[in-house]
Structures are given as structure tokens and as C-alpha cells.
Specification:
Length: 295
């Protein structure tokens, strides 16, 4: 049961030591560093020092959804934050991504997962809320497998899981050979038709600051969460569930009414921002190796 949108636990995984630990989320930290970005940056700060580099074992790769994450009554709450030291900029990097991973992580009982260390061989991390267990198992290298996503889906289907129960993260050959690799977020969308039926796996990306390259360097082939949407009255532990639903309905209407006339984000995603960011009055599109504009 969630409490005001929080599970009040942080999952810590050390790949070098092979250890897994669930620790309580400090209420003061929770209330001060609100949101996936704030909590993620706090957890990053706790793990590094001034000498830590992006590819050092102690640099954590963090995934954190925030208190509104996974509440479908609000638009945009499928987002999750990836946080780590960036190999591209060499400073703290944050990138958000869509899909079900952040929501399922919370449904599994965690407000964030921090992954430190470097695995000796390629591994898959599985957070299984149905069995209430977390495992680290050997896996194929992400940069040497074609059709990795299908292999992962097939593996868990054979184990008896449904497609809608799966959300997972991968990288690929690009992340293994650059400092600007993406993290791919895979999830099952039951609303999209395929061959006259409904449902297909879709992919979103955490494309900023090269955090996929950090994931690849840690020898992580995939991070998988198996979970289900919570049911019942006020399953997210909101202080006033009626007001949450009312506010969410208003926001959905605003997005539905405004988006077609604005950036068409529902159709284009982040690509819809490019022409807007490149306007003379904003100049927010970074150019010349980040010498101009902003990111």
C-alpha cells in the first residue's frame, strides 16, 4: 500500500559485491527532495565525491519516478527519472523517460533503485513483485544480441507472466561505444492495434546525458520489473483521493484541448519540441557543443 504516493523504500544494488538491500526512505529526505529528479540527485550526492568519474564503480545509476509517478489519473505520470554522473558532460546528468517502468518500480514497493559497482559479466536485474524477490542473473551482452527485447519478453512469457506485467530497460551497441548512449524503456501498450488485435510493445528513451553508456559500462543487459497496477479505493494513498481525480481530469482536458494546437507531443514526443526550441526568441536548442543555447 502506497502512502501519499510513496512506497517509502529505496532499493540498493551493488553489482561488484553482488549485494541487494532495501532501506527505508528518510521522511525528511522524502519531503524536502520532492519528485524523481530531486530524490535521484540526492541519492547521487550521497554516493559520490568530487573525484568520482562517470565510469567509476561507485557512481550510481539511479531510477526514481516521484510521488505522482504511476498515477494514471494524471497526464505525464508514466515518466521516470534516470540519474547518474554523465560521461558526456562529466557532471550530474538527469534524463526522463516514459513507459511503465517507473510506475511498476513503485508498485513493486520502491521509490527508487540505485545501482553501483560493475558486474564481472553481463547481467539482468529482475525485480519481481509477484514473488517478492530481486535477482541478478547472467545474461547475453546487450551490444551483441539482435532482438534482445523479444528474447526478454519470450523468457518471461515462458515463466507464466503476461505481457502487461512486464516493463524493462535495455541499452545496445550505441551505448557500448559512445558517451551519449540512450536507455530504452520497453512496455506493453494494450491500446495499440496489431494485425487486427490490440496490443504491442512500445519503446521510449532516456536520451539525454549519456546514461545508457553508464548502464552499459556496468555490464547491465536489462533491468526488469514485474508488477501489476494496484486496485481498490485510493490505492496510491492520497490524502484526498477525490481531489486527486478531479485535478487529474482537469489536466487531461487541458492537454487534450491544447496539445493539437501546440506541439503535438502526443504524436511526435520530444521531436515536437525541436522547432519550438530553435526559435530566435528562445534559443534553447544547444548548438556548437553546448557553447550556445541550453539543455
Amino acid at each position: 500500500m502506497l502512502d501519499h504516493g510513496y512506497a517509502n523504500q529505496i532499493l540498493h544494488i551493488d553489482l561488484s559485491a553482488g549485494t541487494i538491500a532495501a532501506c527505508p526512505l528518510d521522511p525528511q529526505v522524502r519531503d524536502f527532495f520532492i519528485g524523481g529528479r530531486g530524490l535521484g540527485l540526492y541519492l547521487l550526492h550521497e554516493k559520490i565525491n568530487a573525484r568520482t568519474k562517470a565510469y567509476d564503480p561507485e557512481n550510481p545509476l539511479i531510477f526514481s519516478p516521484g510521488p505522482l509517478g504511476g498515477i494514471p489519473q494524471f497526464p505525464g505520470t508514466s515518466k521516470c527519472m534516470a540519474v547518474s554522473l554523465s560521461p558526456l558532460t562529466r557532471i550530474p546528468g538527469v534524463s526522463n523517460f516514459g513507459g511503465h517502468f517507473g510506475a511498476y518500480l513503485k508498485y513493486a514497493g520502491f521509490d527508487a533503485v540505485t545501482i553501483t559497482g560493475i558486474a564481472k559479466d553481463s547481467v539482468m536485474i529482475v525485480i519481481d513483485s509477484f514473488k517478492r524477490e530481486i535477482t541478478i542473473t547472467n545474461a547475453q551482452r546487450a551490444d551483441q544480441v539482435f532482438g534482445l527485447e523479444k528474447d526478454i519478453v519470450d523468457q518471461f512469457l515462458r515463466e507464466g507472466h503476461e505481457k502487461k506485467d512486464m516493463a524493462f530497460l535495455t541499452t545496445g551497441i550505441g551505448a557500448a561505444n559512445t558517451a551519449f548512449g540512450c536507455i530504452n524503456s520497453h512496455y506493453y501498450d494494450a491500446t495499440k492495434p496489431v494485425d487486427g488485435t490490440k496490443g504491442l510493445f512500445r519503446t521510449k528513451q532516456a536520451g539525454r546525458t549519456g546514461l545508457g553508456s553508464v548502464m552499459s559500462h556496468k555490464n547491465i543487459t536489462a533491468v526488469v520489473v514485474l508488477a501489476a497496477f494496484p486496485h481498490g479505493d485510493n490505492p496510491y494513498g492520497a490524502a484526498d483521493w477525490g481531489k486527486v481525480k478531479e485535478a487529474g481530469a482537469k489536466l487531461h482536458k487541458i492537454v487534450r484541448d491544447v496539445d493539437p494546437q501546440a506541439l503535438q507531443m502526443h504524436l511526435k514526443g520530444s521531436a515536437g519540441l525541436i522547432s519550438f526550441m530553435n526559435k530566435d526568441e528562445y534559443q534553447s536548442l544547444p548548438v556548437n557543443n553546448y557553447q550556445f543555447g541550453s539543455h
